[in-house]
Amino acid sequence: MQLGLVGLGKMGGNMRERIRRAGHTVVGYDRNPEVTDVKDLAELVDRLQAPRVVWVMVPAGEVTQSVVDELGGLLEPGDVVVDGGNSRWTDDEKHAAELGAKGIGFVDAGVSGGVWGLQNGYALMVGGDKEHVERLQPIFDALKPDGPYGYVHAGAVGAGHFSKMVHNGIEYAMMQAYAEGWELLEKVDSVTDVREVFRSWQDGTVIRSWLLDLAVNALDDDEHLDRLKGFAEDSGEGRWTVEAAIDNAVPLPAITASLFARFASRQDDSPQMKMVAALRNQFGGHAVESKK
């Protein structure tokens, strides 16, 4: 299968490689001349045979809107656009309507896997019409992890990004719990090797997880996280999750508290946020702030 892929950053570049390894043809475009296959979107579209599929992996908001607008002027009826970035689900509805008026299909795909996706595969939460999703199944199969799990057609347009948003909200709360436990262990004098306590939890306990494994990786790199500043960004999806909870009158005390904890990190050098920052760097390659 042929695929156009727009955005070849930390995730997009690895996705291109994983899809190619599965035997598909990928034409990639990025503003970085060192990684792009074509000079612009017009050449990307020209290189693909109709009916075309173009997957967009760029930052949410204005950048995604700009790419969707340009593709809307280049593609033809019967083509399909996939937004695999972290867009808000309400934007999906807007993009689907804009492209649908031109006969172009739209699918939203929440993608999880971070910098480890090339090796481990990507969990995919997909929204869109059945006919459009089925056309993309070979690409989804190439990207997902081996085995029966890691892919779902979650529902109509917007359902993929809504599901990914909730996934990220849960991720906030899980990271916050590990961070709070780590700070308490570091605080008491009786526990002399916090890193090895975390390592002991990796097998046989109910709190073992990939995030715990990544926490141990981070502590192996910097045992007391002394090199990190206690500051953690939020990607926006935690805020959207809380907003959706308010709109639907669903109580989310743990997720909401974890979001507010990140806000607190911007006021003080929070020990807990050192762990959250370390975890975000481990799984997603997100930037961290080092102490000067």
UniProtKB/TrEMBL annotation:
Catalytic-site annotation from UniProt: K164
NCBIfam families: gnd_rel, PRK09599.1
Keywords tagged on the record: Gluconate utilization, Oxidoreductase
Name of the protein this chain belongs to: Decarboxylating 6-phosphogluconate dehydrogenase
Family assignment from sequence similarity: Belongs to the 6-phosphogluconate dehydrogenase family. Belongs to the HIBADH-related family.
Organism: Streptomyces doudnae
Alphabetized GO MF terms: oxidoreductase activity
Gene3D superfamilies with a match to the protein in the record: N-(1-d-carboxylethyl)-l-norvaline Dehydrogenase, domain 2 (1.10.1040.10), NAD(P)-binding Rossmann-like Domain (3.40.50.720)
A matching Pfam family: NAD_binding_2
Entry's Gene Ontology BP terms: D-gluconate metabolic process
Domain 6-phosphogluconate dehydrogenase C-terminal: residue ranges: 160-287
SMART domains, alphabetized: 6PGD
